[in-house]
Amino acid sequence: MLVANWKMNLPSEGVREWCDRVAAVTSDVLFGVAPPFLYLQACGSRDSIFVAAQNCSEHAEGAFTGETSASMLAAFGASMVIVGHSERRTLYGESPDVIGEKITRAIESGLRPLLCVGESEEVRLAGGTAKLIGDQLRAALQGRRIEGLVIAYEPVWAIGTGRNATPEVVSETHEAIRTMLVESGNEAAPILYGGSVTPANATQLADVNEVAGFLVGGASLFSDRFIAIGESLRRGGAGQAQKG
Ligand code: PGA
After folding, report:
1. Pair 67, 57: CB distance under 8 Å
2. Of the residues 89, 216, 221, 226, which should be mutated to test ligand 1's pocket, given the most ligand atoms within 8 Å of the CB?
3. Strand partners, 4
């Protein structure tokens, strides 16, 4: 699985052109795109790319100016929603409880939650990565076995910095996440890696055990780079049945 997170950006080649180019690729990799909300429909008209929302409200409906509900996103073509991205956690102060509520709204609306977890550099240096990720998973999953759940391991220090996590770090962390997922009955959830993935490092990262794909920000804004990352996943073998 390869998911483009455009954040609050658009591909300079144009939204439709980007989607047409990615949709034209024949591959066993499942391609998804998370555009700004206004572009969900423009991206959603192709069978071979699924569409994810970058966020949803923690409420089902009501007087919440500026918010968009999970059910509205589903009605506009989204089949997945990113929850708990570190930019939402840090820039918008989303608490573990709010993230848990967003997952509830996603489930109610039939959206697959793509839950992001990951540590800051400070936490990693202090040896607290596994505990923090365990806390993030527990707060978000709340003991639930969630159909269609996808996890993205995104170390905060690797997002948008050009400093991707090494294959060793990815391997160790994904294995720890896998153990926690098995314990919570979510063993079927694929684990993506995200954080400065580019065509140059994707092959090496795709070879890591327990990497089922990538969540890509910056490099996803160019269809050629995104497609090249998809090629690496194919070569790396991720996307095989055991990796979800
Ligand atoms: P990046 O972003 O690929 O630009 O590091 C990844 C993400 O935030 O999902």
Report:
1. yes
2. 216
3. 33, 216
DSSP state of 60: S
pLDDT, one tens digit per residue, over 81-124 is 999 999 999 999 999 999 999 999 999 999 999 999 999 999 99
Name the closest-CA residue to atom 2, ligand 1: 217
Catalytic residue among 58, 119, 154, 210: 154
Per-residue buried b or exposed e for 105-121, using 16+ beta carbons within 10 Å of the residue's own CB: bbbebebbbbbbbbbbe
Catalytic residue among 85, 101, 119, 210: 85
Q: What angle do CA 77, 98, 2 make, to 5 degrees?
A: 40
- With b for 16 or more beta-carbon neighbours within 10 A and e for fewer, the 131-150 pattern comes to ebbbebbebbbeeeebeebb
Half-sphere exposure of 27 (CA within 13 A, CB side): 26
pTM here is 0.95
- CA-CA distance, 244 to 225, in Å (whole number)? 23
Q: Which atom of ligand 1 is nearest to 220's Cα?
A: 3
